[in-house]
Amino acid sequence: MAKQEAKVRKRAVVETAAPVSDASTEGPVPVGEPHPSQESRLAQYYGIVVVALVVFAILFYLGKRNEVQRLWFPEELSEYTGADDKPILIAILGTVFDVTKGADHYGPGGGYSHFAGRDASAAFVTGDFSPAGLTDDVSGLAPSQVAGVAQWRQFYVERYKQVGVLAGRYYDDRGEATAALRSVEAALEEAAHEDARRKEEEKQYPACNSRWSQAAGGEVWCDKGFPRQFFSGSEHLGTRCACVQAQDLDRPDLRQYASCEKYDNRCKTS
Ligand code: HEM
Asked: Where is this region: Disordered (predicted)?
């Protein structure tokens, strides 16, 4: 009897020691619905995905911000002239560069100190370093001159560190390119076309030899072909001397030198 009682007690102990399942406390789980423990695992999983997405979005934003770099405003840029041991910054076509390592040129008293702390794009090709000449406005320049400014920008890209863009004429105050920058890009395309056309023309109408001295005046001559004044059709390129083959002599863009006969290959110009 005592043996049987002990058996019953042992079974009761075993039964109480057995793990108590959720199902046993909360009742049966309806078919097709996740088990409550599965539900919490799913919630954990979604949590991880959301955190990963947030981290990704932050990294993406930081990456983008790094791409755009810093946006400068004219008043703050004007403080970076190398005075007060601050770095020296210059802007060209709205791109800002740190030119501190060129302090000999751009620092106080340097030959090019007027470029420091501002965008004076036009002066890079006009050489006009007066207050009026130190302007970022290149809209009055010929396409080839705008290309000259862009070549300077390329010089800075290669030689110095770009540190941002300047809000104003070429970038708006969100750092987006403005219509003025698009006009610059259009002028650069035009300059490239002009350049290609000029190269083509030079092949067809090679340049004459020329010399000038006070005693003898000016003279042009051709080793092959006949010297003609050639108007390239471009305002600022004007006219030049071209060596023209006999079959092209009557073309309307050519003019015979007053001092020359039709088939002379040497002409006085003054
Ligand atoms: C439109 C006219 C000119 C402009 C805009 C101009 C601009 C510049 C600039 C920005 C620099 C500094 C380049 C750097 O960061 O390393 C420079 C350097 C220099 N420029 Fe000019 N320049 C002009 C005309 C001239 C002329 C006419 C001469 C000589 C007669 C000249 C001689 C020099 C010399 C010797 C250097 C120093 C080069 C070096 O040390 O690496 N520049 N120029």
From this structure: 1-36
